[in-house]
Each structure stands twice: as structure tokens, then as C-alpha cells.
Write a structure and sequence with these properties.
The complex is a heterodimer.
Chain A (H helix, E strand, L loop, with lengths): L17 H41 L4 H6 L1 H7 L12 H13 L2 H14 L3 H18 L6 H8 L6 H5 L11 H6 L2 E3 L5 E3 L7 H32 L2 H12 L6 H12 L4 H9 L14 H25 L4 H8 L4 H29 L3 H6 L7 H12 L2 H25 L9
Antiparallel strand pairs in A: 1-2
Chain B lengths: L6 E11 L5 E11 L3 E5 L6 H9 L6 E6 L2 E2 L10 E4 L11 H10 L5 H14 L15 H14 L4 E5 L7 H18 L2 E6 L2 H7 L2 E6 L2 E6 L1 H6 L4 H6 L4 E11 L2 E6 L5 E6 L8 E6 L14 E12 L3 E8 L2 E9 L11 E6 L5 E3 L2
Classes of the chains: A mainly alpha, B alpha+beta.
């Protein structure tokens, strides 16, 4: 049906266009609202948007090493790897002067970066730099820079060292992302799998997903009945139950995690009881901690409230009369539950599920403490590189992949369930 | 229809207690005939909803048995009772469309798809919502939701329909309109209805018979006109319609009538002996406002006078609050015939027939 639209502009009683007048009247309110949220916006920008942006930049940034060896890298690009076994003389020459005159601290940083590409670079360059400095001090000018290098250390004749330059010669590099997926560049700059003994990330990624999905499912299975009880018990009992649900929130994460170690370890409470009951023999004690099982148990318990609370808030507002109505209409209790009750809890299930999954996928402390070697998640690798190897580029890439995965899940969720369907409280 | 010998629903000696200390329903005996519209009327907490829930199967009687079509039903779970119910807040399933809500009882009965479609459409047409099948309950107004709930309770052709204050959430005009609609649907399809309400005008409008509940006991079970005109105790007299009361002591019993001396020495009143037995008993007299005459040439056997405390003009009649025999809440309805020209403070002569005064319990 066509709705006729009046073309004449509406005016206020004073003859000012209505829209203009409305804008003017609203401007003060809008300004005030903006000023009220401004501190929060600023806070979020400084503490959230900027670090994430910095992390994303860091994950592709390779400019530091390029500022240390600009000439070497320029010459390196002219090397025809098919024709010559080793780089041309100019590369050795440029490197000679850049090592001789470079800032020591900057070179040190660059060496760390080079060592990620191929271990051994650090000691080789350090040794070489010492010799080069001696040569420069003497005032000699080498006839062949290439031979000088090879004389200092015969590793300079090993092309695999030179090949590793491939992944460093550009300001922006995707190498950290490939590393995070167990891949690297070969001598031609093509992406290839890492050596078998250096492949650990894909395995950890898969384990992270597996653990997160299991934890989410266990939380749902354990949390659903509790939330249902909470929503339907008389106030007096439900308050008490709510305290039990919230109690973990008031206890330190570390305390809870170490408590699980006490419970689960081979000489722990659970094994002790099982042995005492005669279920298992004394030498058949079950390994429940420092592996994936421990991670699953501890994380499920710790993340359970995040499932229960959204479920509870949804279940609380489902009228009790719905189950009665369904039964009155002829549905057996199971049918009534599946067709009438369960569909109405979906906003809670999805909110809780998404929350638990997202928290689990980035979880660090618990898997680190109870996970042992087989139960570590990707967060442990991020912490390891952040603190031990100082490979922040790789950290950033791992973090960015994690962020990307969460965004993909969020997008999928929106496609399948609809984000309006989420309900947290 | 009042023939209880072929009762369709029968409550026999039903007691109900939730905590073992208080009886919510006491010795309930009630017979409902097939096709009858019976209303349980009473203030909140009088046990009427509990009675309904026992019939629906959501509460178990503590004692006694309920028979449906001569079969005891206490052991039958609610989903096998074939009793339709309209809940207080409709209990429509929000995640299903109107048509899906109506299909639900048919689907769980494994009825074929084409039959379901036909029955759902028929039920929607019955409540004049034929085009609303694809909407969700939240997209309907309160009155429309009410009709959907009604259609859903009827669509699977139950043996009996229960309604638990179904009109409580509607505004006044809509409520009255829905009362007639429910009554008309009942007349048309002739299904047995048990209706619960605390609104006496709703009960009077729709019911064949009304059971007045108070304190878990049925005070009186009767047709609307008898309940109004011949209440059997003072609770029913007060609960149904407007009622003037005068307290006194029985002085003389004479067959079906008696003479009562009013407290405070205001005189003697001749009344029907309903709920009193012997001389010396205290009693409460009940007179309906419209049965009090202010005609000065009164022929009634009881003549009194009262001072006008307040006059309220209501269009078709004038409502006068008088002070009569020490009761200053004595209401008289004066038809607006243009001849009433008294002011507040005037004395009025009143009279009423002794057949219109009922001596009830105190």
C-alpha cells in the first residue's frame, strides 16, 4: 500500500523547521550524555583499544631488524639463489660494515629476532663481530669480504643461514602467524611445515578447542539442573544454594586450583578414598592431575558459575504454569520439557555456553598448574614466549589468532542463534 | 441441567492440606452435570483454585476421590485426563506461533498433519482470530491472547474445560465482552466448564450454577438468581450483590418466619427464618437495597425511618446511604423518576416486606 508522504516541511509554531528545532532542543542532552560517558570511553581506548591495536601491529612488525641491516637486506634481495650457492660479495660487504659500525644494543635486539628464524645466529654473529672489530682496528681492508667471513667461521659458507634471511627482509612479515601454526618459510620464501620436533602449536590449538568444548558441555550438563533448582526452589533454599554457587567467586582462583591438586593427585583425597574403599589397589592409583583430565575437572568447576548464572536468570522468568499447561494439553513430562521448557532456556544456554567457551579458550593459570605437560593450553605458550623467550611477535600472533577465533565463533553464533537471543541477566 | 443424579464430575468428601496443619479444602462434595457451566466463586485463599488444580491433576486430594464420567481420576496423571485448561496468565508458549500453540496438543496426540491444520483453523475461526495463526503471542493484545488460550484449551476436544480466573488480566470493558463470548462459545459447543473467579458479576453473567467458597467450604451451590435472592448464610448474602444488615435476637419463631428484636431497642422486625432455629439466638438480618421501599403509603409489615447521610446521583437511580436502626451503612436505591426531592439530613420513611428479610447466622 502506498502511503502518501507530505512534501511540505513541518514547521513549529514559531516558523522554524521542526527538525531543526528538535535538533537544537536535543543537542544539550546529547552533549551531556557524551560528556558523562567520555571518561569511560577514554579509559577503554587507553586500556583496551590501544593495547589490542599495538598487539595486532606487533604480530606483523619486522621493522627493527630492517633498520639495523638496511643495506645488507637490499643487496640480499639481488641474490639469485638458483645461480649462486652463496650470496654475492656485496651482501658480505654490507654486513661487514653494518656489524662494524652498528649500535650494539640495536644489533643485540636484531640478533634475538634472527635466532627465532634460525637458532645459532646469535653466537655466530657475536663471534664474527668481535673478529670484524679487530680487522677494522688494524685498518686492513679485506680483499674479499666473503672469504674474510668464511675464514672467521665456516658457517658463513652454509647457505641455510642465508636462507633464513628470507623471512626478515620485509618491514611487514606474516612469519609469526605461520610460526603460530607450526609453519615457516623455506629458502624460496614458500610456506612449509616446521621440523617435526618443533611442531607444537597445532597440537596445542586442537587441545585448547577440545578442552574448551568439553568444559562447555560439562558445565551445561552440570549447571542446567542446578540453575533449574535455583529458579524453582522456595526462596529460603534457593538463597542458600545461590551462596554455594557463588562461593567459588569469593575464593582465590589459585586456592581453588591448588585445592584440586590436593584432591586429585596420586596421594590425594580422591585416590585415598578409592584405595580405602578397595575400588582400586594401592599401586593402581589413578593419574588425575598434571594431565588433560585434571585440566578438564578443574576448569569445569571454576567456570561452572558462568554457566549457571545466565541459565538461572532465564529460567527464573519462565512461568511455572508453562510446564503445567503443556501437561494439561496432553504432553508427557519429558515432551513438555523438551518442547516447551528447553526452547525457552536457549538464550541462557547460548549466553552461558559462549561465556564459558570464550573464557576457557584463553584460560591460563589453571591449565598451567594442573595441566602438566599434556594439559597445557595455548595461553601457556603465550605466557612462555612473553616471559621466557621474549618473542613478542609470536605472542602477538598467537593472541591475534585467539581473538580471530573468538570473533569467528561470535559471528557463527550470531548467524545460527542470533545475538539478540543472548541473555545474561 | 441441575439433575445431579447423572453427575459428570463428582467431588466426594475431598479434603486438601498442604502442610498437614491447615485444611485448604474441607469435605468438598460437588456434582457437576454434563454440559453445565459451574463457577467456583470466592475470595482469595478460599480454596477454589486448589479445587480446580485437583481436578486438573496438579494437586492430589489429601482425602476423598474425584470422579470424572463415573471413573476415579486421582491416579491418572494430568496429561492423560483430557481436561482442557485456561490458565490465569494464559500460559501461551512464547516461542511458538499462535498456530503452533494450538497444534501442540494435537501433535502430542499424533494426529495427522492435515487434520491438525483443519482443527487449528476451525478453533481460530471460533475465537475470530482466523488470520492470526502466524503471529507470536507477544504480538497479540491481552484480549487476543485470552482467546488463543481459550482456543488452545478447546482444540483437542477435551471432556471438560477448566478456567482459572482467565479474565483477571483484562480491563473492564474487554472483560465484559469476553464474558459474553465465553458464554456464547459454551452455549454453542455445549462443553462442560468449571470456572474459577473472585468476581461475582462475572459468575452471575456466565454460570448455570455457582459454588460460593469460603474457608475451604462450599457455602452455597445454586443458580445465580437463587444465590442472590435466597442466600442461605450471611457470607453468601454479603459476598453476592449489595446487602443491608441489621443485627438482633430472635424473639419468636412461627413456622417459616420469625420475629427479631433489633439490638439497641429499635423495634421488632418480621423476617423469614433461614439460618436460625430457636428463640434467643443472635441473628443477622439481610435485606437487598432494591427491596426497601421509601413509599410513605407503605403496605409492608416492617415500617422504619432513617436519616439520609449521603446521596449519590448515578443516573438511572439515586443511591442513598441512610442511618437506619443504628446502621449508618444502610443503602437504598431510589429509582430516578424525577419525584425524589430530599436532601441529606432529611428523615425518610422506609418499609419492606417480611418475605424480603432473611434471618441468617451471625
Amino acid at each position: 500500500m502506498e502511503v502518501p508522504i507530505s512534501t511540505a516541511e513541518l514547521l513549529t509554531t514559531d516558523g522554524i523547521p521542526l527538525k531543526q528545532s528538535l535538533r537544537k532542543a536535543e543537542r544539550r542532552n546529547k552533549l551531556r550524555a557524551f560528556l558523562l560517558v567520555f571518561p569511560l570511553l577514554l579509559f577503554i581506548f587507553v586500556t583496551f583499544v590501544m593495547p589490542i591495536g599495538d598487539m595486532l601491529l606487533r604480530s606483523v612488525d619486522d621493522s627493527q631488524i630492517n633498520s639495523v641491516f638496511p643495506n645488507t637486506f637490499d643487496e640480499y634481495k639481488n641474490w639469485d639463489k638458483g645461480a649462486d650457492e652463496l650470496p654475492p660479495e656485496e651482501v658480505y660487504k654490507s654486513l661487514f660494515f653494518e656489524l662494524a659500525n652498528g649500535d650494539k644494543r640495536q644489533i643485540g635486539k636484531a640478533l634475538t629476532r634472527m635466532n627465532y628464524a634460525k637458532s645459532g645466529w646469535k653466537s655466530l654473529i657475536k663471534k664474527t663481530t668481535r673478529e670484524i672489530k679487530k680487522i677494522v682496528k688494524k685498518g686492513e681492508e679485506p680483499v674479499s669480504y666473503k672469504d674474510t667471513f668464511i675464514n672467521i667461521n665456516k658457517l658463513w659458507a652454509d647457505p641455510t643461514y642465508w636462507y633464513s634471511f628470507n623471512q626478515m627482509v620485509k618491514d611487514r612479515s606474516s612469519i609469526y602467524y605461520w610460526n603460530a601454526l607450526d609453519r615457516t618459510f623455506d629458502e624460496d620464501g614458500d610456506v612449509v611445515l616446521q621440523d617435526e620436533k618443533r611442531r607444537m602449536y597445532i597440537k596445542t590449538w586442537l587441545r585448547t578447542f577440545k578442552v574448551s568444548i568439553y568444559v562447555t558441555i560439562f558445565c551445561l550438563i552440570l549447571g542446567f539442573p542446578v540453575a533449574h533448582l535455583l529458579a524453582n526452589l522456595p526462596l529460603r533454599y534457593s538463597n542458600l544454594l545461590m551462596i554455594f554457587v557463588l562461593l567459588p567467586f569469593w575464593t582465590s582462583l589459585l586456592v581453588r586450583t591448588t585445592a584440586w591438586i590436593v584432591m586429585l593427585q596420586q596421594n590425594g583425597v580422591i585416590n585415598g578414598i578409592l584405595v580405602w574403599l578397595g575400588v582400586i589397589s594401592d599401586d593402581g592409583r589413578i593419574q588425575m592431575v598434571y594431565n588433560e583430565v585434571g585440566t578438564l575437572i578443574a576448569m569445569t568447576q571454576i567456570l561452572l558459575p558462568f554457566m549457571i548464572l545466565p541459565l538461572y536468570s532465564v529460567m527464573r522468568v519462565i512461568p511455572k504454569s508453562h510446564m503445567r499447561a503443556a501437561q494439561n494439553l496432553g504432553a508427557k513430562p519429558v515432551t513438555a520439557f523438551l518442547r516447551v521448557y528447553l526452547p525457552q532456556t536457549i538464550p541462557g544456554i547460548s549466553a552461558g555456553g559462549l561465556l564459558v567457551f570464550v573464557l576457557a579458550i584463553g584460560y591460563f593459570i589453571t591449565p598451567e598448574l594442573v595441566g602438566g605437560k599434556d594439559g597445557k593450553l595455548i595461553g601457556s605458550w603465550i605466557a612462555y614466549h612473553l616471559k621466557t623467550t621474549l618473542n613478542w611477535g609470536l605472542c602477538a600472533a598467537l593472541g591475534a589468532i585467539l581473538l580471530g577465533i573468538m570473533l569467528i565463533f561470535y559471528w557463527l553464533y550470531n548467524k545460527i542463534v542470533g545475538i539478540d537471543n543472548i541473555k545474561l541477566g | 441441567m441441575n439433575d445431579t443424579s447423572q453427575s459428570f464430575v463428582k467431588f466426594e468428601k475431598i479434603d486438601k492440606s498442604y502442610d498437614g496443619e491447615v485444611l485448604v479444602v474441607k469435605n468438598l462434595n460437588l456434582d457437576i452435570a454434563k454440559g453445565e457451566f459451574v463457577t467456583m466463586l470466592g475470595p482469595s485463599g478460599s480454596g477454589k483454585t486448589t479445587t480446580l488444580m485437583m481436578l486438573a491433576g496438579f494437586e492430589t486430594p489429601t482425602n476423598g476421590e474425584i470422579f470424572l464420567d463415573t471413573k476415579p481420576i486421582s491416579k491418572i496423571p494430568p496429561y492423560e485426563r483430557e481436561i482442557g485448561m485456561v490458565f490465569q496468565n494464559y500460559a501461551l508458549f512464547p516461542h511458538m506461533t499462535v498456530a503452533e500453540n494450538l497444534s501442540f496438543p494435537l501433535e502430542v496426540r499424533k494426529i495427522s498433519k492435515p487434520d491438525i491444520k483443519e482443527k487449528v483453523q476451525k478453533a481460530l475461526d471460533m475465537v475470530e482470530l482466523g488470520n492470526f495463526g502466524t503471529r507470536f503471542p507477544a504480538q497479540l493484545s491481552g484480549g487476543q491472547q485470552q482467546r488463543v488460550a481459550l482456543a488452545r484449551a478447546l482444540v483437542f476436544e477435551p471432556r471438560l474445560v477448566l478456567m482459572d480466573e482467565p479474565l483477571g488480566a483484562l480491563d473492564k470493558n474487554l472483560r465484559e465482552q469476553m464474558q459474553y463470548e465465553i458464554k456464547h462459545i459454551h452455549d454453542r459447543i455445549g462443553i462442560t466448564v468449571v470456572y474459577v473467579t473472585h468476581d461475582q458479576s462475572e459468575a452471575l453473567t456466565m454460570s448455570n450454577r455457582i459454588a460460593v467458597f469460603n474457608d475451604g467450604v462450599v457455602q452455597q451451590l445454586s443458580t445465580p438468581n437463587i444465590l442472590y435472592e435466597k442466600p442461605e448464610n450471611s457470607f453468601v448474602a454479603k459476598f453476592i450483590g449489595e446487602n443491608n444488615t441489621l443485627n438482633g435476637v430472635v424473639k419468636e419463631v412461627n413456622g417459616s418466619s420469625c420475629t427479631v428484636e433489633l439490638d439497641g431497642g429499635f423495634g421488632m422486625v418480621k423476617a423469614l427464618k433461614i439460618n436460625v432455629n430457636e428463640v434467643g439466638e443472635k441473628t443477622q438480618l439481610s435485606i437487598r437495597p432494591e427491596r426497601v421501599s421509601i413509599d410513605n403509603s407503605a403496605s409492608g409489615s416492617n415500617n422504619f425511618s432513617g436519616k439520609i447521610e449521603e446521596l449519590i446521583y448515578l443516573g438511572d437511580h439515586i443511591r442513598a446511604r441512610l442511618d437506619v436502626c443504628g446502621n449508618n451503612e444502610f443503602i437504598v436505591k431510589v429509582p430516578n423518576e424525577g419525584s425524589f426531592n430530599h436532601k441529606e439530613g432529611d428523615e425518610l420513611k422506609l418499609s419492606w416486606n417480611s418475605e424480603d428479610v432473611r434471618a441468617l447466622d451471625l
